[in-house]
Amino acid sequence: MPKPDWARIRTLFEQAVILDAEARPAFLAHACVDEPALRAEVDALLAADARANQEATELGGAAPDLMLALHRDHQNALAGQRLGPWRLLREIGRGGMGAVYLAQRDDGEYVQQAAIKLVRPGWDLGELLQRFRAERQILATLNHPNIARLLDGGVSADGKPYLVLEYVEGSEIGQYCDTEQLTIECRLQLFLTVCAAVSHAHHRLVVHRDLKPSNIMIDATGQVKLLDFGIAKLIESKTSITGTQTRVFTPEFAAPEQLRGEVVTTSVDVYALGLLLFHLLTGRKPYGITATTPAAYEHAILNLEPQRPSQAVLDRDPDAPTQIIDCAAARQLQPQQLSTALSGDLDAIILKALRKEPEQRYASASALADDVERYLQHEPVLARRGNLRYRMTRFLQRHALASALGMIAVLSLLVGAGVALWQAEQAAAEARKSRAALDFMTGLFTLADPVATQGERVTARELLDTGSHRIREQLLDQPDARAELLLAMGDAYRGLGLFDQALPVLAESAALTRDNDRARLSHAIVLHQLGQFDESLAELGALRATVQGGLRPDQDLMDQVDLRRAVTNVSMNRLDEAGAIFDQLLQGQRTRYGERDRRTEESVIRYASWLVLRDRADEAYVLTKAIVDHQRGQSPRDNEFFARALGAHAVVVSHTGPMTEAEALRREEYDLTLAVFGDQHSYTVSSRNNLATVLFSEQRYAEALALFQSVLISRQQQLGPEHPLIALINTNIATTLVSMDRSAEARPYAETALALREQLFGENHRDTAMSLRTLGNVEFDAGRLDQAEALFRRAIASLEAAMGPSTNMLSGSLNDLVRVQLAKRQPEPDCRSAQRAFDLNDDGNPNAPIRMQYQFALLGACRALNGDPAGMTVLRNAEHRLRNELGPDDYRTRKIGALLADFDDSVRAAPAHSN
């Protein structure tokens, strides 16, 4: 069953919900044509939203509250009134059940402050009073230091029910934890206190029903206080004025059975504790950043599985790009360290508490607390179905010294007989596996014998296809041999660039044996190569937790996993997370292996791309040149690795210059991959694309276009129509056609690339911004200036959100915006966009490198249109130098030349703008 596209579902829901009910069917019929599943999801959200609105706006009971909310002065007027022996001082809170006032005892008996909750009108008063008297004694038995007590209650003279509660002055638990920057362990200790209070109430048959961070305070002494215990049950009415059961809970913090209107048990508080723990450890909600409306969130609670906390802390919110860093810092960690700390045991504990079925959760709040205690004591947690290795690891962590001494003693006694028996068993198993593998490989290679095939040539892919089929048929009783051979087959598919074929083979290999970590790593790599970045990152995170939890963690495998995690984060535009992983990885590898070890160089090659994206190409140049020089001197040489080293250095040189050097590197890389892998291999196709990119930069557009078009054909055959690389090559073709003044031909490529990148990456991604620019230039050349300007502004906003406001990648989009403003004769009075683009590119060189002349020209043109005579001089001088140094055919020369020709007469007649 295909995975729902929640981004599209959310977008369509938010567009439809603001329409009149009569207009929605036509809108959805058009938006969801031939997609009935999509339409059904949106319809379900709209129906849930309608139900929520109906329940929230029953006018009979809600009108008094509506008037109170609209007329806040009326609420303030209640200050000074008496309710029994209490005098209201001021309003201190408001929620779905009513308003809360700070009150003071006013009968002269003694001084005491309290919180008085004025319960919303709408309940049957007779029933409320009857229920209150029956329940008050039960609630009074909640004598626990961490539960705020219910002191009194009654009905005011004008018929408003009220409850008198212990007043707690302090901070909400989440706010307190973040302000104090509490560690994971300290937060867990606070959480255990909350669990103890909840368990106390449960033992007295009292369920809170509305546990949430705002109902859990930390007072001035650091003491936990739970508010409103039992209030939900007390004021829940089956016969309200409207005749419908009142929902006295907060939907965001409700258990699925509460939303379904089922019987409420202590299990709803267990679910709420799981939500609280998720919030305390991640600062997030468990259903990601897509459930942004109440109806959508209710749908998520009922139908979706919650995120793993370890993944949630790495999910970037486009509206809060620094959130993941701030969240980790509040826990005294880096984002990746926080994710690692949560993966494994804490993931399992929280997800068990959040299961949809009450019977599948922890049986009680104390059972949940016991599992958290086990985690803190390095004992196996019950939520995790640990195998023997897992339990042994936790035991050794608890008793490291005693375990070591005991192990030595035991081994001294058993070393003779035990080792001999183990070696014999292992030898027999290896012999069986080797014999099975040998028989299989002998039969497979027979397929390549011309005699057996009667002269027909068998390709490598045909051998792999046949081999994979035979493994499944012939080695059913040899799971270890089958796993090893399938791993080899999967890696061979991957080596041929056949990622779709590799994926199921590697998945099967990984599933056959418990600890087939190499197959899991290969599987994650293929997921990345297929553009399934979220899935790849999840697989890598789980694998890292497994390796790290082993008795003797494989450091080399851990390094490979971390390298792939960094690379995948770069592909997902999560540069901060990637940088943190790279820093830790390289520091360790340089210490363990040295700078010129192959493993360290592999990581540095990937790190160089990150440095370029961070505008640190000069640092990258030193690193990649050292690797290329070192590899040139190797004999024998690994040509595959050397080709990638050449490519990494070429990327850096393309940013530092000269382009002739970059072209030489790209041609050497392409010739090498062509010789090693052949014309249609994925590596060779990538090299061809890279060479075309350099040719484009050298204005050899016809040569570049031919190569790009051949790459598109190969990529479509290899990857299908919806891979990120398909978007990239469509953008490359469109950009080249625009530069050749063939914008009409460029449009379908530009539109395809933008649609695909919006689907894959969303709006705030550097690749999406590039496609916005490309389509904007198509619109500009077509004379559709308003559309072009809108696209350029979106590109700027996208880059700012993704890369920050100071990245020099912004200069191109800013230049585009200035060009369209100049064409519309609507320059900014202060030329701020032109000046900003200039400042981003200005490196302080007094000789003004040639790339700056384009900036000079646009800035001069803007000033000229604003009435500054010197602006035309700057524009003419820049055009002259561009023509002399880049030639008349360079796209920058042509753009500025057209601008100058258009301006020459009109600028002289333009009125001056006041500054």
TrEMBL record:
Q: Which SMART domains match?
A: S_TKc, TPR
Transmembrane segment boundaries: 400-422
Keyword Nucleotide-binding annotated: yes
Could you state a single Gene Ontology molecular function term? protein serine/threonine kinase activity
Q: Where does ATP bind?
A: 117
- Recite the UniProt keywords alphabetically: ATP-binding, Kinase, Membrane, Nucleotide-binding, Transferase, Transmembrane, Transmembrane helix
Q: Which residues form the Protein kinase domain?
A: 86-376
Q: Which domain of life is it from?
A: Bacteria
Q: Look up keyword Transmembrane helix and say if it applies.
A: yes
Q: What name does the UniProt record give this protein?
A: Protein kinase domain-containing protein
Q: Which organism is it from?
A: Ahniella affigens
Give the taxonomic lineage as stored in the record: Bacteria, Pseudomonadati, Pseudomonadota, Gammaproteobacteria, Lysobacterales
